[in-house]
């Protein structure tokens, strides 16, 4: 094999090894830093925003609203055809008087869409602080998208912990491992998009 080609192959192999190592270390850091508790459970914010994707998220948001942690609740990414009464009925524990304080968003289909939809609602209400309710493994990407869309609004994370996701010993549970690896990949894509879109927005280009 010619020396030049051998050198090229070695360079490619070394670069691939470095990249793989960086991805593995990044993933381990991502999993290690996932929230394992609610940092400020008693704090009151102007509003609560729940991202759909699990029944425990909605029930947690409704419970927080009932306990006075905020005066309004916005649920983003709701299936079309579901109204507030149906949402309260499915949640079972939510009292009927909460109907007046819950708003549903039907447009979002992605986490980035959740952030856009929620930002429009938050800005329309002139709120300055929001408690964000979503799964713990989903929180890093959600915070990234929400803070990018609402830089002037304080976002207080409120993670929930689905029983089927084993954060502590994820390597022993193939389902949890696959979910966390997939979420890490989506988080990296969101980070790259933020790096690209941020400067474009600063230059006046919509993103």
Automatic annotation (TrEMBL):
GO terms for biological process: Gram-negative-bacterium-type cell wall biogenesis; peptidoglycan metabolic process. Residues 46-184 form the DUF218 domain. CDD domains: YdcF-like (cd06259). InterPro entries: Cell_Envelope_Assoc (IPR051599), DUF218 (IPR003848), Rossmann-like_a/b/a_fold (IPR014729). One of its GO terms (cellular component) is plasma membrane. This is DUF218 domain-containing protein. The lineage of its organism: Bacteria, Pseudomonadati, Pseudomonadota, Alphaproteobacteria, Rhodospirillales.
């Amino acid at each position: 094999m010619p020396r030049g080609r051998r050198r090229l192959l070695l360079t490619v192999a070394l670069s691939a090894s470095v990249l793989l190592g960086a991805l593995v270390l990044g993933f381990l850091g991502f999993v290690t830093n996932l929230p394992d508790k609610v940092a400020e459970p008693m704090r009151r914010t102007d509003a609560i925003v729940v991202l759909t994707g699990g029944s425990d998220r909605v029930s947690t948001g409704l419970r927080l609203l009932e306990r006075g942690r905020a005066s309004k609740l916005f649920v983003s990414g709701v299936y079309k055809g579901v109204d507030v009464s149906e949402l309260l009925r499915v949640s079972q524990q939510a009292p009927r008087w909460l109907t007046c304080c819950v708003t549903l968003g039907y447009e979002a289909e992605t986490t980035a869409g959740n952030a856009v939809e929620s930002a429009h609602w938050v800005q329309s209400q002139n709120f300055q602080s929001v408690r964000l309710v979503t799964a713990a493994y989903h929180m890093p990407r959600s915070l990234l998208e929400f803070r990018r869309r609402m830089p002037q609004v304080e976002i207080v994370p409120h993670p929930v912990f689905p029983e089927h996701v084993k954060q502590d010993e994820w390597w022993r549970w193939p389902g949890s491992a696959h979910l966390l690896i997939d979420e890490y990949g989506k988080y990296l894509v969101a980070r790259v998009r933020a790096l690209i879109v941020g400067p474009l927005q600063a230059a006046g280009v919509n993103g």
